[in-house]
Specification:
1 helix; four-stranded antiparallel sheet; mainly beta; single chain
Length: 311
Amino acid sequence: MAYIGRSPIHGALERQSLTADGSTTTFTLDYVVGSSASLVVSVAGVLQEPEVAYNIGSGGSQIVFTAAPASGDAVYVVFLGAALEVATVGSGVITSRTELSETAADNDLLLLYDTSAGALKKVQKQYVGVNINTTTALAAEPASGDKILVYDASASANRAVEYQYFNPTLTYTNGTAAGDGSDTTFTINSGRSVNDVIVSVNGFILVPTDDYTISGTVLTFATAPVNGGEISIRYLPLAGTASYTNSKFTGNGSATTQTISSGRSVEDVIVTVNGVLLVPSDDYSISGTTLTFSTAPANSAEISVRFLRLT
């Protein structure tokens, strides 16, 4: 047979006739094809346009016409190519490769199947996650130093966080002492700072740094507590490297609002004015970063705000 252009290198093209009845639009093909472009389709001597006049269905095993060919029309298809069945990849393709003996670099590539796109994709290791050392289920509560994988929305990255920050063990302790009118130093528990210790004398809460300082196990008062003064030292619970904070303000007799740290509520803030503890909701409220007093603190009044939640 003569050909315009180059002749086929191997074999011949297959042809299939279809019987039209004026109503049937779907026909089963003799061969499975990969796309509608793999077919040349003729209806009553007129070539049909792929994806317009017809499509393939059922995974390439059927041809579906947009409109049913008329009864008596000569309909045939020519197969330009059949779908190739790809052999299953054996496990040796993976197991015979050289094993990486160290943690993969962030820009190393992994192969995965993207179910949303229905295709294999390559992805950098940094987008998969950080190294997790075991896949064995933990049969007990994690230790405080165990790490949990979380997604840090502020950094748009995966992070490892120690379990102690999810479920810290909070231990409250206290100590007492009596003033003698002259001593300014007292021994306290180690590992403490002014921000995580609440000190009061005769019920008046002192202001950190201004009224007392801490160095090692020594608490030093700016002024010696009076003779017989009842000193109370409350130790706030600690967890890891998290810490407490505080703010100080001075009243002017008219201002009822002060700006404080965000994310706070009346339940996790201790507010004092000249050492007197205020009642949450009754004496002050918090909205966003604004602390509002029910009554403006007096002129020169010492306002202390202690933030109880660890940061």
